[in-house]
């Protein structure tokens, strides 16, 4: 276990933003993680858990408490059952399951961050979500003071949401377990239209696992969504806003605004999102509100590759980023009557 003080946190985030932590502890075992959490809770010290830092916005003043960096390792594959330590690098884990010929998370390739963060956000992309294959989460329950195992149902997964996100101060994820599929080297049925087009197949078809993974990686890279230290378009948290899910009444009002603003022939993206609800595209809203790729003239700008990514061009502060985010939120609200919600977790920062 490594312990430092007045420790920079910016290098631990994909935004490369934020002030220092009063104390930073790097834990390499579940026991160390639990010891640090228990000690902080007993002392009443604020605790910030850091995994891969890919979904984290830290304020310029930093964090006046203990930051716990989870650096545990563990990849155990028995048949089609996979267990990952929370600190495992997610992209590496996906690659290893593809190499093993198992389907279920191949379209989640290239997503930065740690395995332990995936259930918190119910990470998803290109037609797959971790909730589809995840069976259990082992976590330290800070309220009960003990390690617990939560089933998929108990995790209360929803779109980019879970029990862990709803109650962020209660659980620290230690391990995640999945059941994958042996489809003779083929992927899960391709669900996402963009992926199917790129693969040249129909929705519902299966393709070789390696081909599915490589196609997703190329799609993500084209949008600046694969980490590259030399490319400022990847100095981001990926998608900064979630796709809005609207009631029938709200979607009708939104639809009318679209016609009024863009013309009678304009049709916004619309996807089923459960009974009485429709999901639309945050990227579309941002673009049609006038915030196109590359928007901005300061140190924080919209990615030149994708309107959903807000980026640090190398010299930004967190306040620069937040100012841009607020401008986008206000512009979309004024144009379409929809208030965008940030996807990254805010620490010492707010829109």
Short description:
This protein is α+β, with helices and mostly antiparallel strands and 351 residues long. The chain is built from ten helices and 18 strands.
Would you give an account of this structure?
By secondary structure, the protein is of the alpha+beta class. The protein has helices at residues 30-43, 90-99, 118-121, 130-133, 163-166, 193-199, 209-222, 248-262, 282-288, 318-336, and strands at 2-8, 20-27, 47-50, 56-58, 63-70, 75-78, 81-85, 124-125, 128-129, 134-141, 146-151, 171-179, 245-247, 271-272, 277-279, 300-302, 310-312, 345-347. The longest helix has 19 residues, at 318-336. It starts with a strand and ends with a strand.
Structural category = alpha+beta
Q: What's the arrangement of strands in the largest beta sheet?
A: 6-7-12-10-11
Report helical residue fraction.
25-40%
Coarse shape: globular
Distance between the termini: 35 Å
Unreliable spans are: none
Our count of helices gives 10
The number of distinct β-strands equals: 18
The biggest beta sheet is recorded as:
5 strands, antiparallel
What does the average pLDDT come to? 96
Gyration radius from CA atoms, angstroms: 20 Å
Q: Spell out the helices and strands N to C.
A: EEHEEEEEHHEEHEEHEHHEHEEHEEHE
Tell me what portion of residues adopts beta-strand conformation.
15-25%
Break the fold down into its secondary structure elements and pairings.
Elements: E1 2-8, E2 20-27, H1 30-43, E3 47-50, E4 56-58, E5 63-70, E6 75-78, E7 81-85, H2 90-99, H3 118-121, E8 124-125, E9 128-129, H4 130-133, E10 134-141, E11 146-151, H5 163-166, E12 171-179, H6 193-199, H7 209-222, E13 245-247, H8 248-262, E14 271-272, E15 277-279, H9 282-288, E16 300-302, E17 310-312, H10 318-336, E18 345-347
Parallel strand pairs: 2-5, 3-5, 4-18
Antiparallel strand pairs: 1-2, 6-7, 7-12, 8-9, 10-11, 10-12, 13-15, 14-15, 16-17
